[in-house]
Each structure stands twice: as structure tokens, then as C-alpha cells.
């Protein structure tokens, strides 16, 4: 048994999704860097202590910015796996989903980095859920339907 994958003509659009993830990471590095500078947190410290963050709002904002970036980094491997798989079969859907995810993560970052972690998922930040759910359910749909075709 062999499985041949032919990339659809629209596959080059996937580069836009990959670029969206890269731009998101660059944006977040800038937010963390600006917060680090404002709070005067020296390298290589990843975070400041809770006591420091409670005593200085700029240090709290730094911790929040760093956490927003860290949370995104924790999610990127899953996003890339789902994006990569789905893009082979539905490149426009996959690219749209990952761009929506990245767009939502920009607002997630801005809201989290403002210093109130409870506000990180408000407003436009919620759009990242649309992206990740589209990637997840799109991947599941393709995996199940293609598996049925192969094993039927």
C-alpha cells in the first residue's frame, strides 16, 4: 500500500501562515524587551519574584509580558503540527486559521502585558480560539475521512 500526497495548487499560500507565526514571535519579543527595559530587569532573569512584582507595577507588567510570550511558545509546536497537516489538504483553510490564531494572540499579548492577567482573553484576544479550533477540527476531519478512504 502506498499513499501519495499531491500538494494542491493553492499550497504556496501556506507561506503566509508561516510568516504570521514568525511575525507574532517577533512582536512578542519586542513587547517583552520593552517591558524588560522599562522594569530594569537584567538578563538572564526570566521573571522577577512575586514580591518584586507586587511592589513595582512595571515589574508585574514584565512578568505578564514574559508569560504571554511563554504561553505562546508552549502552544506553537501543536499549532505548527496541526497547521502543517491540514495545509497539505486544505491550504487556504489552514492558513486562514493560523492567521486568525496569530491575530488573536497579538491581542492576548497586549492585554496580558498590560498587567492584569485576568483580562488576557477578553475582546479580540478570543479570536485565537477560532483559529486553534479550526486547525484542530479540520485536522481531525481530514485524518478520519482520509483514513476511512485508505482502510475501506
TrEMBL record:
Is the keyword Transmembrane helix assigned to this protein? yes
Q: Which InterPro entries match?
A: MAPEG, MAPEG-like_dom_sf, Membr-assoc_MAPEG
Task: Just give the chief location class.
Answer: membrane
Topologically, how does it sit relative to the membrane? Answer: Multi-pass membrane protein
Keywords on record: Membrane, Transmembrane, Transmembrane helix
Q: Which residues cross the membrane?
A: 6-27, 79-103, 123-144
Q: Where in the cell is it found?
A: Membrane
Q: What is this protein called?
A: Glutathione transferase
